[in-house]
Amino acid sequence: MRDIPDEPVPPSLADDLLIDVEDGAIPERPRHPLLIAAALVLIALNLRPALSSLGPVLAEVVRDTGVSASSASILTTVPVVCLGVFGLAAPGLARRFGSERVILAMLAVLAAGIALRAVPAFAAQVAAALVAGAGIGVVGALLPGLVKRDFPERAALMTGVYTMALCGGAALAAGSIVPLSHALGGWPPALASWALPALVAAAVWLSGLPDAGAHHAHGRWEVRGLWRDPLAWQVTLFMGLQSSLAYVVFAWLAPILRDRGLDPVTAGFVVSSSILVQLITALTAPIVAGRRRHQGGVVLVVLALTLVGLLGCLYAPIGSVWLWAVLVGLGQGGSFALGLTLIVLRAGDPHVAAALSSMAQSVGYTLASCGPLLVGLLHDRTGGWGLSGVLFTVVVAAAAVFGVLAGRPLHVRVVSRPV
Fold first, then answer.
1. Each residue of 323-361: pLDDT tens digit?
2. C-alpha to C-alpha distance for 156 and 25, rounded to whole angstroms
3. In terms of residue numbers, what domain contains 65?
4. What are phi and psi of 222, to 5 degrees?
């Protein structure tokens, strides 16, 4: 790693593991920045409903499919694992076909996976989670590189706007899924209905694709040494640890609140409201962090809010749940936005940003998938949610360590050059 600004990196620092990003993976796009921003926001709105819509109706899914809580954890874990596994494939796909075309194809894959949820069988739900998770993983890994490329002077602001859209989509899905299930006659069509917005996003993105002849995937750009760089791993581990808590909220906060006495609709609204509150810090945290030389202090604040809120949801009187849900939302909105912001800030150019995004989101989300799984296993083992608080505390403490390290004013120490 090196201090900002960059200095040339001696070739001896490169290792044998090479991440190639062709020029075609980050092509020039002549459209107006506002149109690009609007398209990115629309895509971001569709990257979380497949994850956040399941939790509020998970009890019904368990009841109708006849599986245990541990088995139900598969449905919450598989898509997050796919985010990690398929995020690794993103640079190669973009190198061959171009980022814009890959995003279009993966939006179609995402829509297909969500539509598969209309089949009320456990095997079909697992398959849906796999397909939808694959689409989200590839798209999510490619977008930070596009932000770094198209908005180099406003990367922190655009990261905040993009994160706000992610949170908004998640909140809308979590809050509306129970009413939708009542209106549409059950949870399968309600879950599957979120395929329609994904198709709309694909259609809008298609309208802005460059002509085939304009795609200029000619030279190659290599990024060497990333997977041996300590700062890259610090960014990655912070991303994974804070994300694990976000996916616990998506999957298990509504069941936790239902077991504590809230009715299904109220529990869904509490989760939705918590996610909606994320919009505040999703926008403000990257702006504040981008103006500071060291982002570690901001990391500690948002993680503290997350932990206090989660512990309140678990142990405080249920009548105060709205307060704790707000704190969770403020903390998690800022945490996730900072995870994406650190990818952009710690990368010296768009090619490094694309490679670091792939690493941080693939490894990070694979790690994050352990969170919902462990909560489900602890619940099955103990019959309650009490031990989850210990898990939350350990995860936040580890995230704080890596977040402070990743917040230092450095760039990842890699070789990034055309070949």
1. 999 999 999 999 988 998 899 889 888 778 878 888 888
2. 22
3. 2-418
4. -105, 145
